Amino acid sequence: MSRLEEILAYNREFVNNKEYEPYLAEKYPKKELLVVTCMDTRLVELLPKALNLKNGDAKVVKTAGAMVTEPYGSVMRSILVGVSLLKAKEIFVIGHKGCGMEGLRAGSVLEHLEEHGVTQNEIEAVREQGVDLHKWLAGCANVEEGVMNSIRLIQNHPLLPQEIQVHGLIIDPETGELELIHDGRK
């Protein structure tokens, strides 16, 4: 059975047995939070537990490295929808120790893509569209810098309402301990 077939079979049982009922929630976040965090697998269950977040408490946007790098990209659009239409009043940008984006170089990503069949012609076609792949695929020097760069981009966005607080934290993916690196109330 393929992974897709396995998931679909499980889902049929999940729905038939009404296992979704404990997860029913409102559209708007009860705690009025929007969390931007990393897509790291260690954070899937740990992060909500460490923040005392339950289903329906917050909107969560996941990116590689909790990085917001494009002022008019899909991540920033999600943030703006979250604070305007979905009633989030605070944003938490939460990176984590030992993040794979720390020190990531675009060259290693491109090499891996080539090993999996992406051709030089395809890479050049992207460059010809004006994309600086080395900038676009790069990580950050360290997690704190990545979080702070994201905070600056969010806070300085011309469409972000002034009253929205943007906080920065780093979580330990082993213990769940949070370190505050930027208090958006100040």
Automatic annotation (TrEMBL):
Binds 1 zinc ion per subunit. One of its GO terms (molecular function) is zinc ion binding. Keywords: Metal-binding, Zinc. CDD domains: beta_CA_cladeD. Its cofactor is Zn(2+). Zn(2+) binds at residues 38, 40, 96, 99. It catalyses: hydrogencarbonate + H(+) = CO2 + H2O. The keyword Iron-sulfur does not apply. InterPro entries: Carbonic_anhydrase (IPR001765), Carbonic_anhydrase_sf (IPR036874). Pfam families: Pro_CA. SMART domains: Pro_CA (SM00947). Its EC number is 4.2.1.1. The keyword Zinc applies. Belongs to the beta-class carbonic anhydrase family. This is carbonic anhydrase. It comes from Thermoactinomyces daqus.
